[in-house]
Amino acid sequence: MKTAHAARLVIAATLCAGLAGCGGGPNAGPNESPDMRPEVRRTTIWDAFRSSENPNTAVGVNKYLWNASLEVLNFLPVQTVDPFTGVIQTGYGTPPGGGRSYRATIKIADPALDARSLKLSLQGPGGAAVEPGTVRAVEDAILTRARQLRIQDGRL
After folding, report:
1. β-pairing, 118-123 with 103-108?
2. What whole-number distance in Å separates Cα of residue 118 and Cα of residue 61?
3. CA 77, CA 94: separation in Å to the nearest integer?
4. Do 142 and 74 belong to one domain?
5. Of 23, 69, 119, 142, which residue is the least packed, with the fewest Cβ within 10 Å?
6. 131 lies in which domain range?
7. CA–CA distances in Å: residue 38 to residues 22, 41, 43
8. Residue 28 counted as domain residue
9. In a shared domain, residues 81 and 136
10. Residue 85's domain is classified under what CATH number?
11. Are residues 72 and 144 in the same domain?
C-alpha cells in the first residue's frame, strides 16, 4: 500500500512540475513562449543585419535654421559643415560695418524650429569672449531669418 501511495505522489509531482514548466509566466499569452516576450528577448548579432532604416536619410537638423545660419553669418568663411550632426564651424571674419573679427560654431540640435534647437558660440580674436548681448542678437537674427524662410516656403 505504501508503494502505491508513493508512486501516486511521484506521478503527481512529475505532472505538476511538467505543467509548471509549460507556463510562460504571468505575462505570457497562450501562444507566446517566454523567450519571445519583448521584455525577455535578447538582441543577437543577426539583429544588426535586419535594420530596415537607412542611416543616411535620417537627418535631425532643421533646414530653416541651417540655411538661416549660413545666410546671417555669410561674412564668415565656412570651414566645416556636418548636416548629420548639425554643426557649422567658421573661420574669422569681420561683419559689415564692424571693426572686430569673430568666428562662430553653430549647433542645430533638433529638427524643430525653436530657439532651444539653436546653439551659437562666438569667439573674438585669440579666443576672446564675446558679450552675451552680441551672441543673443546674432541668435535672434538667425531665428528671425529662419521664420522668414519657413513663411516663404509656405509650410505653416
Report:
1. antiparallel
2. 10
3. 10
4. yes
5. 23
6. 63-153
7. 19, 5, 10
8. yes
9. yes
10. 3.30.530
11. yes
